[in-house]
Amino acid sequence: MAQIDIDIEITDCIIKIATNEKFDTVIERAARNDIEKLKGFDFDWKVEYNDSEKEVYKLRIQGQSEILGLISLSPMHEERVVFVHLIERKDYKGEKLYAGIGGNLFAFACKLSMELDFDGYVSFEAKSNLISHYEKELGAELYGSNLMGINDENALKLVMRYYKEYGNDDVG
């Protein structure tokens, strides 16, 4: 697979739930060293990272090194869609510390889809218990038993929600 031509993205924020404090975030390509030192994640990200058909990106608070979320994706040129293979936020022993990690990562996938002239289309397989969450939070639609997609209109809404450069200053 040809490597995606994005190394770093600045998104507008995630919110610390306990204080409602907003933090600017950075999404960038994960390095081997990042994956080898991961703690607090359930999935085996080495498998994703070592798959030449996939790109793995990490989300962190700007100015900090702790990885808060990861996404594995591939542009599918013939289908004109970015496929999300895996997405995960860091688990703090069952406690959710930040809001917006998943939204940031999906907005990144939508923005990448737009930049690849796929009109923002993103597709992914959802766990059954998360389908209604993805419908509500991302505007995703169910296409099969667990296959979901984000269309061009909802992709734009997500990108506008998480990227000021697209005209929305009120993130969250």
* Overall pLDDT metric: 88
What oligomeric state do the depicted chains represent? single chain
Trace the largest sheet across and list its strands: 6-1-2-3-4-5-7-9-8
Q: Beta-strand level of the residues, as a percent range?
A: 25-35%
What is the rounded distance between the termini? 34 Å
Largest sheet: 9 strands, mixed
Helix content: 25-40%
Order of helices and strands: EEHHEEEEHEHEEH
Discrete helix count = 5
Please give the radius of gyration in angstroms.
Answer: 15 Å
Structural class: alpha+beta
The 3D shape can be described as: globular
* Total beta-strand segments: 9
Defining traits:
disordered N terminus, alpha+beta, 172 residues, 9 strands
What does this structure look like?
The radius of gyration is 15 Å and the shape is globular. Strands 6-1-2-3-4-5-7-9-8 form a 9-stranded mixed beta sheet. The model is unreliable at 1-6 and 168-172 (pLDDT under 50). The chain is α+β, with helices and mostly antiparallel strands and 172 residues long. Strand 3 (55-61) and strand 4 form a beta hairpin. The chain has helices at residues 32-36, 45-50, 101-115, 131-138, 152-162, and strands at 8-16, 21-29, 55-61, 67-76, 81-89, 98-99, 122-125, 141-142, 147-150. It is 26% helix and 33% strand. It has 5 helices and 9 strands, in the order E-E-H-H-E-E-E-E-H-E-H-E-E-H.
